[in-house]
């Protein structure tokens, strides 16, 4: 007997499957893509756009691309010439760092990421010690490894540094150096001493009001004038000072946001315990405020990481600088697109993963202080 | 501690080195002294260094002849013009690219921000991919991409990419017809001004009428009609006093018409696409910040979707959108200085680049350049603070 016409006792009717227009792929498409004339037109337009754009890109990047060989003559199929990237890869990573010393760069960054990655997880035991190691001890180790000059390591002058390694060095030093300066500036800006506050406000607003390029120009042409006669310091160091001062101002504003978010009761309670200013800040306020602004710090770092590309304008060969130099090399003329795509891909991996991490932190921190 | 102390109503004064007031003064004097000493030290070193290197100081160089050409200038400029004139050319070019960039970035950001909230998964997916890709790639790389990879590879003038025989794209730039106002064009401008004044008066009247009688007026359509109608009328009456100069291929290059050099196009594209991605996120956050109850309440009182959007959602969303939008505009102005890398003749490229190299007066040149950006930043943020105050929620 046909189940649709069968009669049942009340309450014993078996559940019928939902109509096919409410579940499954068809219903999903109707709900999300074709839910009206306007939406249908949009969907069709978008689909047409994708068909127009995606297949040529895939063909260029994968299907027609050349990867074997090591001269430009190997690139014959009309797609991307990844041979260019393959041949220049080591230079893109290390710049002009001497080949026999490149293990030092590898070692430095292996230590860096080996400490950094466990540090990013909340549950990691001994996380505090890892942080202290990364902020205070690692820079010293990194300096001796990268620059050399002692422990039997040959000196590698900074003009030979370059590529992704230089980009990471500038970004990491910039952020590590700007953190303490930023804390001091943020505290100063919220201080009730008028002169200290004014100095901090002027300093912060000055650096935030000018573009990084002018700061770098200043670092490269004005800093040498500031030094007493005979004293000179290296171009990379000057750029680093400029970058650190610049990002310190942004850092100060991020940290100030955290300081403002701490309820007044915390300050009052700490003072009622008889703690002095530095103890109130160091033991009660800053630990809470800094924890709150970690997402902001990561976002500042992303901005700084992208901004490090600007050092190529004052003649340092960072990652983009060295790709740009390679693309204008007569031996590989006409393959700049491959260079830029590779470069963009690397920057994107770094920035995208950091922004995801910062969003993860934001979600995690959201519970405690929402009122 | 002894118990038979007298209880005094005023607390004992701490010794002077523990008194917060004196401590504060002492500390501030110390900080101020350190800053002043550091400043003097730098000033002395700089003066000595300049003297030893025989570099002149002061701003006298602004009046000497520059002696270099600038490829694109909004005001009259020749190689005989002064450095001061070159500065003005650079400043105007910076302002031009920033102004056009702000408009394009806002439009793009608005479009993509709304697209990202679309219920259509394909549309919102494309918007998401655009935002996530563009935001995470350095701007300088994008400028290089547009300039070296895209605009350098377009054909030479002989084989220009053309659109309707009026727009031409080649490796010398983007050519379009240039408007040539004839005599009588003034009347159209006057009509435009009259139209704007009329619209303001009409809006005021419409608002008062609505307050009095509760009847809404078709302000938008009437405004549009006035804005287009009056100048159009003036144009017809005066017999269209506007001629167009078309670009024409002569020899190896186009002559006449409006030309946007490739540097400008590349910078503009990169700036507006990059900033547009950030603005899109701001717009999205702003619209999401208006709680669902507001839209539900609006439809409960019988407002249509479009009216809800215009009268309920947008005014509240704008309040959230404007502060971060301001900082994006400021970023765009500051980022226009990246043009120095592709030699578009804006402020940094002309002044902190060429002029600095020619005169060697690093201190003055850098100070002027930074001063200009500081002034622009402070002006925009002051204006936006004022605007923000007007838009802010009035709590009752």
Task: Compile the SSE list and pairings.
The complex is a heterodimer of chains A (371) and B (396).
Chain A lengths: L23 H9 L4 H27 L18 H13 L7 H18 L7 H20 L16 H27 L4 H16 L2 H10 L1 H4 L8 H27 L2 H9 L4 H16 L1 H14 L11 H9 L8 H34 L2
Chain B lengths: L19 H34 L29 H34 L4 H15 L3 H12 L10 E3 L3 E4 L2 E4 L1 E4 L3 H29 L5 H20 L3 E4 L2 E3 L2 E3 L2 E3 L1 H28 L2 H9 L4 H31 L11 H13 L2 H30 L5
Antiparallel strand pairs in B: 1-2, 2-3, 3-8, 4-5, 6-7
Short description:
The complex is a heterodimer of chains A (371) and B (396). Chain A is mainly alpha-helical and 371 residues long.
Describe the 3D structure.
With 371 residues, chain A is mainly alpha-helical. Chain A is built from 15 helices and no strands. Chain A has helices at residues 24-32, 37-63, 82-94, 102-119, 127-146, 163-189, 194-209, 212-221, 223-226, 235-261, 264-272, 277-292, 294-307, 319-327, 336-369. In chain A, helix 4 runs antiparallel to helix 5 (127-146), helix 6 (163-189) packs across helix 13 (294-307) and helix 14 (319-327) packs antiparallel against helix 15. The model of chain A has no long low-confidence stretch (mean pLDDT 85). Chain B is of the alpha+beta class. Among the domains of chain B are: 16-52; 83-154 and 262-391, MetI-like (MetI-like fold), CATH 1.10.3720. Chain B has helices spanning 20-53, 83-116, 121-135, 139-150, 185-213, 219-238, 262-289, 292-300, 305-335, 347-359, 362-391; strands at 161-163, 167-170, 173-176, 178-181, 242-245, 248-250, 253-255, 258-260. In chain B, the strands form three sheets. Chain B has a four-stranded antiparallel β-sheet. In chain B, a hairpin with a 3-residue loop joins strand 1 (161-163) and strand 2 (167-170).
């Amino acid at each position: 007997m046909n189940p649709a016409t069968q009669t049942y006792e009340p309450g014993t009717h078996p559940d019928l499957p939902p109509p096919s227009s409410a579940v499954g792929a068809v219903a999903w498409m109707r709900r999300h893509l074709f839910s009206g004339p306007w939406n249908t037109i949009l969907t069709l337009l978008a689909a047409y756009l994708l068909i127009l754009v995606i297949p040529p890109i895939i063909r260029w990047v994968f299907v027609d691309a050349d990867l074997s060989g090591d001269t430009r003559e190997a690139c014959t199929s009309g797609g991307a010439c990844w041979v260019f990237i393959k041949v220049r890869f080591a230079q893109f990573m290390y710049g002009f760092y001497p080949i026999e010393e490149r293990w030092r760069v590898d070692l430095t960054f292996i230590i860096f990421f080996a400490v950094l990655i466990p540090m990013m997880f909340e549950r990691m035991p001994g996380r505090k010690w890892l942080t202290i190691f990364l902020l205070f001890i690692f820079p010293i180790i990194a300096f001796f490894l990268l620059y050399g000059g002692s422990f039997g390591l040959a000196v590698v002058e900074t003009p030979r540094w370059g590529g992704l390694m230089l980009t990471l060095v500038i970004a990491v030093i910039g952020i590590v150096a700007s953190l303490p300066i930023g804390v001091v500036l943020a505290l100063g800006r919220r201080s009730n001493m008028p002169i200290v506050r004014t100095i901090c406000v002027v300093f912060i607003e000055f650096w935030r009001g000018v573009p990084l390029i002018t700061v770098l120009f200043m670092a490269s042409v004005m800093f040498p004038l500031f030094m007493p006669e005979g004293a000179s310091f290296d171009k990379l160091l000057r750029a680093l000072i400029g970058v650190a001062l610049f990002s310190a101002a942004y850092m100060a504003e991020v940290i100030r946001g955290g300081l403002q978010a701490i309820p007044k009761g915390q300050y009052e309670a700490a003072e009622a315990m008889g703690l002095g200013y530095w103890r109130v800040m160091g033991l009660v306020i800053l630990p809470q405020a800094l924890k709150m602004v970690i997402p902001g710090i990561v976002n500042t770092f992303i901005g700084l990481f992208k901004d490090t590309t600007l050092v190529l304008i004052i003649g340092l060969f960072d990652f983009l600088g060295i790709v740009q130099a390679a693309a204008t090399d007569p031996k590989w003329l006409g393959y700049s697109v491959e260079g830029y795509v590779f470069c963009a891909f690397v920057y994107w991996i770094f920035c995208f993963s950091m922004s995801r991490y910062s969003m993860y932190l934001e979600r995690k921190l959201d519970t405690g202080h929402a009122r | 501690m002894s118990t038979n102390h007298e209880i005094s109503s005023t607390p004992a004064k701490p010794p002077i080195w523990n008194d917060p007031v004196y401590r504060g003064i002492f500390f501030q004097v110390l900080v101020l002294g350190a800053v002043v000493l550091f400043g003097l030290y730098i000033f002395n070193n700089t003066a000595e260094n300049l003297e030893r290197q025989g570099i002149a100081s002061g701003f006298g160089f602004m009046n000497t002849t520059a002696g270099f050409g600038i490829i694109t200038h909004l005001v009259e400029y020749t190689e005989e013009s002064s450095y001061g004139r070159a500065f003005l050319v650079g400043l105007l070019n910076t302002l031009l690219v920033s102004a056009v960039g702000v408009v394009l970035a806002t439009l793009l950001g608005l479009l993509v921000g709304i697209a990202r909230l679309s219920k259509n998964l394909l549309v919102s997916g494309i918007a998401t991919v655009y935002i996530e890709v563009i935001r995470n790639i350095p701007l300088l790389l994008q400028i290089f991409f547009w300039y070296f990879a895209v605009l350098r590879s377009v054909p030479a003038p002989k084989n220009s990419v053309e659109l309707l025989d009026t727009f031409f794209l080649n490796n010398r730039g983007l050519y379009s017809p240039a408007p040539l106002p004839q005599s009588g064009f003034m009347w159209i401008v006057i009509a435009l001004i009259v139209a704007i004044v009329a619209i303001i008066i009409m809006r005021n009247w419409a608002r008062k009428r609505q307050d009095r009688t509760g009847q809404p007026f078709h302000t938008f359509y009437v405004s549009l009609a006035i804005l287009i109608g009056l100048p159009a009328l003036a144009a017809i009456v005066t017999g269209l006093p506007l001629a167009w100069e078309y670009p024409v291929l002569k020899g190896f290059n186009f002559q006449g018409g409006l030309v946007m050099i490739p540097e400008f196009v590349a910078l503009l594209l990169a700036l507006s696409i990059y900033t547009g991605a950030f603005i899109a996120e701001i717009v999205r956050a702003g619209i999401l910040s208006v709680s669902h109850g507001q839209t539900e309440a609006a439809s409960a009182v019988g407002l249509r979707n479009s009216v809800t959007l215009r009268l309920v959602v947008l005014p509240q969303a704008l309040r959230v959108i404007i502060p971060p939008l301001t900082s994006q505009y400021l970023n765009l102005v500051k980022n226009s200085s990246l043009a120095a890398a592709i030699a578009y003749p804006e402020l940094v490229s002309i002044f902190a680049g060429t002029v600095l190299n020619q005169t060697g007066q690093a201190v003055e040149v850098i100070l002027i350049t930074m001063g200009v950006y500081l002034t622009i930043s402070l002006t925009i943020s002051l204006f936006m603070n004022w605007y923000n105050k007007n838009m802010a929620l009035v709590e009752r």
